[in-house]
Amino acid sequence: MNLPPPTPKQARVIWFAITTFAVAVCMVLLAGLLWGLGRVLNLLAPVLWPLAVAAVIACVLDPVVDFLEHRKVPRTAGILFTFLAGLALLTVFFWILTPRLVDEAGQLLARVPVYTQHVQKKVSAWVAAPPKQIRWMFLRNELLSPPATNAVAPPVPPPASTNAPPLAPAEGTPETPEAWQQKIIESLTGWVTGLLPQTANWLRKGLVKLTSLLGIFVGLGLIPVYVFYFLHEKRGIQSKWTDYLPVQDSRFKDEVVFLLSAIQGYLVAFFRGQVLVATCDALLYTIGFLAIGLHYAFLLGMMAQVLTLIPFVGAMIICATSVVLAAVQFQDAFHPLLALGVFGVVQAVEGLVISPKIMGDRVGLHPLTILIAVMVGTTLLGGLLGGILAIPLTAVLRVVMFRYIWKKR
């Protein structure tokens, strides 16, 4: 059966349909890959999080070790010296700040009921006497709404009372001591039978919690070991990692090596820079909140150290928390504005000074792209880890698109 060839217009429609279908298939495959990656991360989280934390710490400490090595210090000695110096700094840091953090956390927990009651009173007072603009809006809506009917629903008649006397409980026959003994045995048997599953369930939950806690402590203990070997074996990893790829020497292997090198470069640049940026933000937030007299400045600074590892989302959480705490502490409108001012100043300093000096253009993503990537990562990959991994994964996707799709080779 000979069919005539398609016209140029039909050919364009056919190719457009094929391209659209291919793009849809690629999107579905990408969504499935991200979903599977999120499930794998949740399953292997006890194994992966110590490795991830150790890799980030190694990325941060590697320039210090390289500096000491360039100064003719043996690499092992430089690593040990860096470990001891970092341990001393952490000891001093926690020795100074831990009592303050514990005190602020205790005060905040103790004042939460008072703050909640104060907010409830404010809301009740606002509802009882709303501002003039709100009252005028409601009055206007009532004037514009159609009049309601004045029909009154007929009263519901009360239920008819019955004069029948209540039923007297049936008199039972007196129970013998043997019957009482049998009844007690049956009650004890039923109680023990119901108690055994609850005890087994409680023991199972306790064992799961204990195992999880032991896993956390084991992971914390393995982090320094992982960091030491990452730093010590850096040269060997850099020179020989391509030999372990299950691909023969070919042009395809060169492309795989290029992609993996780009991934490694983006991961190192992002995590090393983001940790330093988060540290600077935490210091600036603490100084700013202390300057306006906020009670929980150190606690908010410690929160900023962790949360600002996720761009935008962590900063918004710190902003909202500081504004709420300032409002309930000072009970005015001026100090929440001061908290907003601190947030704006820190974000301006970060965007104009800190990030350009530390991060530069090594990640190379638009702020809107970063925000979308963080939201998608926290949804598909799950939680804090997904939000942190979203940006380097997006940067890697950008490398692939620019190399194979958007630009000529």
Task: Note down, in words, how this protein is organized.
There is one protein chain. With 409 residues, this protein is mainly alpha-helical. It has 3 domains: 7-43; 46-97 and 200-240, no CATH class; 245-409, no CATH class. The protein contains 11 helices and no strands. Residues 167-171 have low confidence and may be disordered.
What's a concise summary of this model?
The chain has helices spanning 8-43, 45-70, 75-128, 132-144, 177-232, 234-240, 251-291, 297-307, 313-330, 334-358, 367-406.
Main traits of this protein?
mainly alpha, 409 residues, 11 helices, 3 domains, extended, 0% strand, 80% helix
Please specify the SSE layout and strand pairing.
Blueprint: H1 8-43, H2 45-70, H3 75-128, H4 132-144, H5 177-232, H6 234-240, H7 251-291, H8 297-307, H9 313-330, H10 334-358, H11 367-406
